[in-house]
Amino acid sequence: MAKTIMVVDDSASLRQVVHIALKGAGYDVVEAADGQIALNKLDAQKVNLIVCDVNMPNMDGISFVRELKQKPSHKFTPVIMLTTESQEEKKREGQAAGAKAWVVKPFRPEVLLGAVQKLVLP
Fold first, then answer.
1. Distance set, CA 17 to CA 29, 32, 108, 112 (Å)
2. Contact (Cβ atoms closer than 8 angstroms) between residue 11 and residue 84
3. What is the tally of structural domains in the chain?
4. Cα 89 from chain centroid?
5. Is 4 helix (H, G, I), strand (E, B) or coil?
6. Of 13, 73, 76, nearest to 42 (Cα)?
7. Taking 90 as the threshold, does the pLDDT of residue 79 lie above it?
8. With 70 as the cut, is the pLDDT of residue 122 above it?
9. Which of 14, 34, 30 is nearest to 106 (CA)?
10. In the beta sheet, which residues pair with residue 103?
11. Are the beta carbons of 51 and 8 closer than 8 angstroms?
12. What sign does the CA torsion over 100, 54, 109, 26 have?
């Protein structure tokens, strides 16, 4: 059975690029335009990993990760932050919230897929 990955980003074009890369690698993909939408979708769906932007309207990525980690059902779901933010302080904030990896945009699909493969449990 294919693993399901959620892509959370307010950019539809970026979600599409990530979706195509993940689908091509054999993953099922669910999309959300911001953290709040993602949390609502997660109540109804099991995902194996989340790829999330930092800067989004309604609920930013770091707030989303903090909320996600409060849910017993998603406490151990790995999160990769995919963002234009490259400052160490933001990375530390993301890690403190529970993010497992940090990929800076623009990204190469193979770099993202490498991080996904390391974090998706068999």
1. 12, 14, 10, 11
2. no
3. 1
4. 19
5. strand
6. 73
7. yes
8. no
9. 14
10. 82
11. yes
12. positive
Residues 6+ apart with CB under 8 A from 26: 2
In this structure, is the dihedral angle defined by the CA atoms of residues 58, 85, 98 and 80, taken in order, positive or negative? positive
Q: What is the CATH number of the domain that holds 8?
A: 3.40.50.2300
Which own/partner pairs from 25-31 qualify as long-range (CB within 8 Å, at least 24 positions apart)? 25/113, 25/116, 25/117, 26/2, 27/2, 27/3, 27/116, 27/120, 28/2, 28/3, 28/4, 29/4, 29/5, 30/4, 30/5, 30/6, 31/6, 31/7
Domain range holding 50? 4-119
Give me 43's structure tokens. 């109540």
pLDDT in tens, 44-60: 888 999 999 999 999 99
Rounded-to-10 torsion of CA 52, 58, 63, 65: -30
